[in-house]
Amino acid sequence: MRPRHRYAACIGTVTAGLVLAACSQPANSSDDDDGESGSLSIATGTTSGLYYPIGGAMAEIIKDSVDGVNASAESTGASVENIRLLDAGDSDLAIAQGDVVYQAYHGDGEFSDAAVETNTLMVLYPNVYHAVSLAAIDEDLGLDCFGDVAGHRFSVGAPGSGNELATNLVFDALGMSTDSDISRQRYAYAETARALREGQLDAGSWVVGEGHGSLSELEATDPIHLIPMCDDEVAAVTDQYPFYTPHTISADTYSTIDDDVSTIALWNVVSVSSDMSEDRGYELASALYENVETISQVYAGAADYLTLETLENSPVPLHPGLIRYAEEQGVEIPDELRP
């Protein structure tokens, strides 16, 4: 395994009583007998995002459950940076969006210079594609399938954001262009909500976890309409970009929608280097999956999503240690998810 270079960053308490990643052990601690480091770095995201507290909870689990191993969660610029840190040997675990991991593994997109040898250690939760309008706007325009946004004012997300990337890919898969088929706006979530309220926009995209606060705030003043992706649209996107999966937003997720909504989702995962030994991967996977309740203290959806049944949503092959643990629990692993 490549040597690990540390840049230590402590994180503190996220919820009362849960100290998320202490730095009591020096960053360059001694290696285990098998030559692997006894100190693990978890690359997360900004302190205001969800990756950061999840990484802190993971660090707490590892320290408490894996003998002789310390762990710390580090604040970063999120997915792309995390995979680069993993590839450079500066982090041991990296939380990242599935599209970034897929591109890294295949040497595409941001990683076209060189592929990254990585496997999935844990599948986390989905970022769900929401195409959002207001109920009053839908009454006028009839936005029954995603393609109905053509010819209308649509926000694709803030410039350079993951939201914009996802929206561009969706339009591409459907044979549409954000340059010519819509009146394109490039707003962040708060700006999109404001523009919808003020009649300056017809619809916009949110690529977020279900029940996202900004959508709850929007529907508190204006009933929303979630534009479905019809079956052929879901198939077109998931066939062209396999890191997307079909997804259904339940009607009870938002107070102002009455029916389930068909769309796509992009799963977040915990990535590790393919160099990590099977034994170390097994120790970590078993510790994390058997202590999901700790992650539930900082992420309410953990109990629903952090199960072995969601492994099928991994964008790249699973780590051999995770495969061993999953098979011990009676989970069948398809050939395409084996390294």
TrEMBL record:
The signal peptide annotation in the UniProt record is: 1-21
Task: For this UniProt record, give its keywords in alphabetical order, as a comma-separated list.
Answer: Signal
In terms of InterPro entries, this protein maps to: TRAP_TAXI (IPR011852)
Q: Which Pfam families match?
A: NMT1_3
Record bears the keyword Ribosomal protein: no
Say yes or no: keyword Ion transport present: no
The record's annotation in Gene3D superfamilies points to: Periplasmic binding protein-like II (3.40.190.10)
Q: Which CDD domains match?
A: PBP2_TAXI_TRAP
Q: PANTHER family recorded for this chain? A: SLL1037 PROTEIN (PTHR42941)
- What's the name of the protein? TAXI family TRAP transporter solute-binding subunit
